[in-house]
Amino acid sequence: MMNRSPKLLAALLLTTALALPFPGCKSKPKSTRGLSAYLFNGKNLKGWAPINGGTWTIEEGTIVGRNGQGWAVDPDKSGSWLRTDKSYGDFLLELEYNLNENGNSGVFIRSTLDKNPAFTGYEIQLLPDAGKPVSKGSTGSLYDVVAPLRNMSKPAGEWNRIRVLAKGSKVQVHVNGVMVVDTDAPRSTKGFIGLQVHDDKSIVKFRNVRITEL
To answer: What local confidence, expressed as pLDDT, does residue 30 receive?
Structure first.
């Protein structure tokens, strides 16, 4: 075995000590960017918070919204919605939804908690409006802002797929695999994601709610 001088041993010990973390020091959290994660665990509403009433339950692995109240076109007034605990900036959001015949719902993106989330951020409108002409209030629209290129909504009671890409001011919306909106949406760059239940005639279901932060 090679003999080491006291000075060399001291230098080696100092180098080793500096390479080790200090006691009580926490490692930097790993970034979630680029990683896909489910926002709904299929069991409970952990990670979500109800706003302004409505009834939210978990049934057969889906989020079910009923008894919505308080919605109006007033930008200063909010109705019943379910929002994420966390706010998001750039992301890819994917989910499935199912509406009853009289249903009315929406997905809010980059919304704040003050006033109407459809106007502090944006609302992707969801309706059982299969076969109807498109407008700024039809399925896939950015509500009151941009009409979808096509109406890709399925009839009431069937599951639909939504894909929303928000990157900087660019927002793209796909409904059932077809891109229906591709626009600049500079109103907000970060905020909560929300699920709407519009009124007491609406029953809306959501499942497979997944997000990828970009």
So the answer is: 62
Give one word for 162, left, alpha or beta, with left for phi > 0 and alpha for psi -120 to 50: beta
Domain at 35-213: CATH code = 2.60.120.560
Instruction: Judge contact between 84 and 67, C-beta under 8 A.
Output: no
Predicted local distance difference test score (pLDDT) of residue 213: 98
Residue type for position 132: K
Closest C-alpha to 138, from 121, 152, 122, 117: 152
| Residue 208 near residue 94, CB atoms below 8 Å | yes
Residue among 115, 138, 86 at smallest CA distance from 187: 115
Calpha distance 100→82 (Å, rounded):
18
CB neighbours of residue 136 within 10 Å: 13
Which sequence spans correspond to the domains of the chain?
35-213
Q: Got the DSSP string for 75-94? A: TT----EEEEEEEESSEEEE
Angle made by CA atoms 43, 45, 50, in degrees to the nearest 5:
155
User: In order along the chain (214 residues), what is the average pLDDT of each group of 10 residues?
Assistant: 49 44 49 86 98 97 98 95 98 98 98 96 98 98 98 98 98 98 97 98 98 98
* Contact status, residue 65 vs residue 97, Cβ threshold 8 Å: no
CA angle 103, 106, 107 (to 5 degrees): 150
